[in-house]
Amino acid sequence: MKFSVTIPAYKAKFLKECIESVLAQTYKDFELIIVNDASPEDLTSIVKLFDDPRIRYYINETNCGALNVVDNWNKCLSYATGDYIICMGDDDKLLPNCLEEYAKLIEKYPGLGVYHAMTGIIDEDSNLIRMQETRPEREGVYSMLLGRILYRRIQYIGDFLFDRNLLKDNGGFYKLPIAWGSDDISSYIAAKNTGIANMQVIGFLYRDNLQTITNSSNVVYKLKAMMQEETWYKEFLSHEPSKEDIIEYMYWRMSSMNISKFIIRRKLSTIVNDLVNKGFGRAYYYWKNRKEYLINTKLIAYALIETMKRKQITKSKC
Questions:
Q1: Which of 5, 12, 83 lies closest to 42 in space, CA to CA?
Q2: Last residue of some domain: 180, 211, 242?
Q3: I need a labelling partner for 100 at 20 to 30 A (CA). Which of 3, 20, 147, 257 fits?
């Protein structure tokens, strides 16, 4: 089998380290596709440091930008020729065993639309600061979804390996503003019919830093994305699955019962982070626009309380 490892690139800071991690794979049958999103930084000089025929480098004529970053993910997909595709950030890393472990997983569970690598979270100096929870080696889409809803599984687009043809048939990576929720929904669509297989060892490293879209993007875009995300979830869960697999059926029921709480929790966390950064006066903005973002006064009150708690904790540490 052949893998397409893709990097929709914009930032230069960690790109060299990212490329090195891909080229260090113990499994050698892959292509590395780098798509420069018309970056103002000199990415070309970094790519030219590597003389490897597996690298294919493209430069966008116009910038997709953070708001439409999924467009660049899908450009990467359009250039890919492998059987399976990874889309990773320009600051993330693969461990040397990643593709080899994926190959083993595919051999054990062939014919799935998506596979998942256990992920370690690293800081700006590549120190491991935490890691994902262990997941069942094999699970259905509703088990996967419920784990995200109830147990707050953390995951990123680079965690997943997609069947390239299936992903293209599904319309590519699912587009939401600033890709907020696009990783989740893309994986659920791919897992809908055949489920997912999860790696039991770490294969992917996600870099948590202030430059990531998650940490730097406008909160308004996040809230708008969550509204679209909620609409998708409700449509997806409105279709009752067969009761033949009683366990998956139970997962579907529990997911349906808890999806609204999941979205509310995400909105609350997003608003609290904004209030911490911009001050309590920002709460008036949310009250004024509560209908637009489908939030209520109670949620804003909770956000104010949580913000006060967080500020008190920070103050006590100082």
A1: 12
A2: 211
A3: 147
pLDDT of 213 over the 80 cut: no
Residue 101 has pLDDT above 50, yes or no: yes
pLDDT score at 217: 57
Same domain as 13, residue 33: yes
Strand 30-36 with 3-9, pairing: parallel
Which CATH number does the domain housing residue 32 bear?
3.90.550.10
Nearest to 260 by CA among 248, 271, 268: 268
Co-location of 252 and 204 in the same domain: no
What is the count of structural domains for the chain?
2
Q: Do residues 103 and 138 share a domain?
A: yes
Identify any residues that bridge with 206 across adjacent strands, giving them in sequence order: 121
Beta bridge partners of 59: 36
194 and 258 part of one domain? no
Q: What are 241-297's pLDDT values in tens digits?
A: 999 999 999 999 999 999 999 999 999 999 999 999 899 999 999 999 999 998 999
Q: What is the pTM of this model?
A: 0.93
* Alpha-carbon distances, residue 164 vs 3, 167, 286 (angstroms): 9, 5, 40
CA-to-CA distance for 78 and 315, rounded, in angstroms?
49
Of 45-49, 225-229, 304-308, the range with the highest mean pLDDT is: 45-49
Q: Tell me, what amino acid is at 257?
A: M
Each as own residue / partner, the long-range contacts of residues 146-150 (CB below 8 Å, 24 or more positions apart, any chain) are 146/251, 146/254, 146/255, 146/258, 148/184, 148/262, 149/255, 149/258, 149/259, 149/261, 149/262, 150/254, 150/258
